[in-house]
Design a protein that fits this description.
single chain; 218 residues; two-stranded antiparallel ribbon; 19% strand; globular
Length: 218
C-alpha cells in the first residue's frame, strides 16, 4: 500500500557565479519512509504545536550562510518530520534529529522552543559541514588539538559530536548559543574557528561524503 506524503516546501535558492546553482531546501514531511528510519528508532504521533517550524529553521540557516558564504554552494535538504522519535530500549524518548550526507531530519519534540530548534539546526549543519569538507584524518587531528590528548567519556565528547557542538559555539546564532554547550571540554576559541574555516575554504571538487560513501550521525 502506498502512503502519500504531504510535503510543504520552502526553497532557499543560492545563486553562484556560474549558471548552475545550489540550494538548501526545507521541507515538512508527514513521516519517514521505512528505508530512512535508523535502526531501533520508533516514530510516534506528535501534536501540531510540537512541530518544528520552517521559519525558525530558515532563520538559522540564513545566519550560518552569512558567516560561511561557501555554504551557498552546498546542496542540502532539511526535512521537518511531523513525528516524535525515540529509542525506548535506551530510555531516549525525545530525539531531535540526525544528519546523513546532504540530508538532515529534524523531529517534533516535547520541549520545543525557537532557541533549541536553532541550536539543533546549527548542530546538524555542523555534521554536514564535516561530511562535505573535513576528511576523517583531519577530524582526528582536530580532536587531538581540542582535547590535548585527554579522552573523556560521554556522548558529546566523541569527535563527531564535539565538532558539531563546536560548530554551534563558533558559528551558530545568539539564539542557538543560549542552549548549554554539552561537551565536557572547554569551548573552542579563535584557533579552532580559523582551523575550521581553513578546511571549509579549501578547493574541493566534490563533497567528501561522495568519496567515502555514506556518512551519518544519529
Amino acid at each position: 500500500m502506498f502512503h502519500k506524503l504531504l510535503i510543504t516546501t520552502l526553497v532557499i535558492i543560492l545563486f553562484t557565479v556560474s549558471p548552475a546553482f545550489a540550494e538548501i531546501q526545507i521541507k515538512n514531511l508527514d513521516t519517514l519512509p521505512n528505508k530512512a528510519i535508523p535502526e531501533n528508532y520508533i516514530l510516534s504521533p506528535a501534536q501540531k504545536d510540537k512541530y518544528v517550524q520552517i521559519k525558525t529553521v530558515s532563520a538559522e540557516v540564513y545566519h550560518i550562510q552569512k558567516i560561511i558564504p561557501v555554504l551557498n554552494d552546498v546542496d542540502l535538504t532539511i526535512y521537518l518530520v511531523k513525528k516524535h522519535a525515540g529509542i525506548p530500549e535506551t530510555g531516549l524518548d525525545d530525539l531531535y534529529g540526525y544528519a546523513c550526507d546532504d540530508l538532515i531530519y529534524l523531529f517534533s519534540y516535547s520541549d520545543i522552543s525557537d532557541d533549541l530548534t536553532r541550536n539543533v539546526v546549527a548542530h546538524e549543519i555542523g555534521h554536514v559541514v564535516r561530511y562535505y569538507f573535513i576528511p576523517q584524518n583531519s577530524l582526528n587531528k582536530y580532536f587531538k588539538m581540542r582535547t590535548k590528548g585527554e579522552n573523556k567519556e560521554g556522548y558529546f565528547n566523541d569527535p563527531e559530536e564535539l565538532f558539531a557542538e563546536d560548530f554551534v559555539f563558533l558559528f551558530g546564532s545568539e539564539s542557538a548559543k543560549k542552549i548549554v554547550y554539552s561537551p565536557e571540554y572547554k569551548p573552542p576559541g579563535p584557533a579552532e574557528k580559523e582551523w575550521i574555516l581553513g578546511k571549509i575554504n579549501e578547493d574541493l571538487s566534490i563533497p567528501l561524503f561522495l568519496v567515502y560513501l555514506q556518512s551519518c550521525t544519529f
